[in-house]
Amino acid sequence: MSVVLRCSSGCLLDSRPLIERGWRSENRRSHARRTFRRRCFQLVTRRYDQSAAASVSAGSTDVSGQPEKPAKKRKRKRSELNQGEIDSLALHEKVRSVILDGTKVLVDLSQSSGYLNGEADSENEPLPLQECGLAALCEMAKELPLVDGEEQEEFTQSLVGDEGSTSHVDLFSRVTENKEDWAAVVSLMGEEYVIPPHSAFLLSDLTRIQPLVQYGKTFDLIVMDPPWENKSVKRSRRYNYLPSSQLKRLPIPQLASPNCLVVTWVTNRPSHLRFVCDELYPHWGVQVVAKWFWIKVTTSGQFVFPLDSQHKKPYETLVLGRCNLSANTSASTSEMPELPVEDNRLIVSVPSALHSQKPSLSEVLRPYIGPEAECLELFARNLQPGWTSWGNEVLKFQHTSYFTLTPADDQANTSKDDFTDEPTDPQASNLSETT
């Protein structure tokens, strides 16, 4: 399962099992299934570069409570910090003890149960280096004329035809669905992408998001990981960023069901956090209910970066909010009860070595949305069984180079239950009840 254990501080997450749970081969007669490359989730050593080491504060400690390595460069005086850095330092000091203490509890519990023991495959398998050109394809597709909503007969299309073969699909103007109980493969510009079962997606940018609105669904959970603007992104040109003001154009009120839980990944830049809490959520009629933190650790349970580094933090923030019922429906609160969301919860996991691949939150958020919830991910870079996904790189981590085919001894007994997030490993199920 994905959630290895839960406690009052949060949960420990194993991302890889959830990526591949229940995925069958595209050939329903084949006794094989696709697994995500293990190497992507085996960060053994800390990302402790010299620039990070130089910014560690005196007296800083790691997860185990041991002192961090001493700084090799002179630490700048507080007066030399710009206003943004001063704000970041103040924000970090507010949450530092929550992150340090909570992470230690979760790591200690996991290690006593046999997890985060530092083990990794002996083979040094290279990481996939697939260059994603989906965003460029979306730019090319923008040259095509827009189809008026009244003229377009269908806003959805099936990936698999009536005879079981993968059909020709228009990925840019319709929501594509794989309703089958097995994965399928779609070919796009000479590249192959794996589409998980019971999933739907739209490949487009913000200017062509309308088919998602016309899809006819509303969602109980909306998760988004916006391409935030920052200096390093501008310098590296690794991906196209989106100005914060443009995020207000997202049609959240049209996509959200009553009492929808909205979750946004936010960088550690205080201006972005203020924008989400004070401008973006109020603009959509969403009320902030909690802030959570994703803590990135190595396979031995150490922070991937020094906790007090001024350059890179070993955590990211998630802002959770609930849609305003009165703005979406006339239903009463008694008809749609609101489950309380605890504040300052931690999600501890070994991060993917692939840039911008976030852990799935479906199992973590299930207690707050229910097992039958409709889920949507915006700015997605991968697909999930049972979810709808949108973005201009929505198939990025679905490329076949990220997967290997392995035997499935009991594929014939695979049922629809395999595509849920319920525990399948008895040992893991027991661990998830840790308090």
Can you tag this structure with a few keywords?
alpha/beta; globular; 12-stranded mixed β-sheet; Rossmann fold; disordered C terminus; 21% strand; 22% helix; 435 residues; two-stranded antiparallel ribbon
Structural features, described:
The protein has 435 residues and is α/β, with parallel strands linked by helices. It is built from 11 helices and 16 strands. A 12-stranded mixed β-sheet has the order 1-2-13-11-12-10-9-14-15-8-5-4.
Q: What integer value in Å does the Rg equal?
A: 22 Å
Write the element-wise H/E pattern from the N-terminal end onward. Answer: EEHEHHHEEEEEHEHHEHEEHEHEEEH
Question: What is the mean pLDDT?
Answer: 78
List the strand order in the largest sheet: 1-2-13-11-12-10-9-14-15-8-5-4
Principal-axes geometry comes out as globular
Provide a concise account of the structure shown:
The protein has eleven helices and 16 strands.
List the helices and strands and how they pair.
Elements: E1 3-7, E2 10-13, H1 15-20, E3 32-36, H2 50-53, H3 83-112, H4 134-141, E4 156-158, E5 175-178, E6 184-188, E7 191-195, E8 199-203, H5 210-213, E9 219-224, H6 231-236, H7 252-255, E10 256-266, H8 270-284, E11 286-296, E12 315-323, H9 325-328, E13 346-349, H10 362-369, E14 375-378, E15 387-391, E16 403-407, H11 426-431
Parallel strand pairs: 2-13, 4-5, 8-15, 9-10, 9-14, 11-13, 14-15
Antiparallel strand pairs: 1-2, 3-16, 5-8, 6-7, 10-12, 11-12
